[in-house]
Design a protein that fits this description.
It contains 13 helices and no strands. It is mainly alpha-helical. It has a domain of about 190 residues. The longest helix has about 30 residues.
Length: about 325
Amino acid sequence: MKRMVTRGNIALVVGAGVLIFLVLTFLGKAGKVESAFATFDWRYLPLVLALSLGNYLVRFLRWQYYLRQVGVRLGRLRSLMVFMGGLTMSVTPAKLGELIKSYLLWEREKVPVGVSAPVVLAERVTDSTAIVLLTLAGVGLFPYRWEIWTVTAVVAVVLVLLVGFRKRLMGRLARRFGQMSLAADSGGLGGMQEAMETILRPSSVAAGTVIGAVAWFLECLGLYLVVKGFGHGADITLAQSTFAYAFATFAGALAFIPGGLGVAEGSIAGLLLLMGVARPVAASATILVRVCTLWFAVGLGAIFLLAAGKGPRAKPPTQA
């Protein structure tokens, strides 16, 4: 697990993020991007950050729901520390690095990896279905060949659901990542099949998808407020911002690139341009929204991860 959070890996990802921001600045014309930032109404920034924080807290409720589904009972504060610490891994491919939460649950609470890993994978599945639903919600008002985007989104959600309900395939995936990422003595992988069968029931997937849709909509709203904050040269609807952010997030996950770097930024900026947003504003808005979502999550997660590492070990939780 420690290989996933080495300083070298973190430095590489951060460097890639900075490089992408520089490219966006260049494409948006540096001088005009600087001017756009000068006109931004910074009173919107706390609201955007609050929406991102709201996203994490709503997803934490889903985390709690899934833990209870597999019979794990934790105090809210201890559970929150583990969940928020996992945000550090938002810059891993498809966020699968969040399996670090399974390591933390074993190290801190003695919850077997075989029980907790399916929870993390269920989060990823329902994040995908939630994002696709949000894409569909906004696609009808997207003015460029929306029929094609709709068909693409429908096909994507069907594929995700097929993967989600193939318990054997998901079990193999969980086992593979568990073996690669977790120490051999982290509680073993026993009970994984039972946990997968429990957590991937249609009712559990549906509940996780609804909660995920609420959470991710908050960040779609954040993009809308960011663009609105630039005033001139920035006029999009909430439906358009929902489509742009949801589509970019899903595209970044499908690319299997750490944090969707490059793909997500390019998608957001490109869609904003198609929606009539001026190039400097599109570039500036993309940079700002990624700082307030992806990099805010990483930074906040790092703080909780450090705090979790220094805190006292708790007694093992009860399991139903």
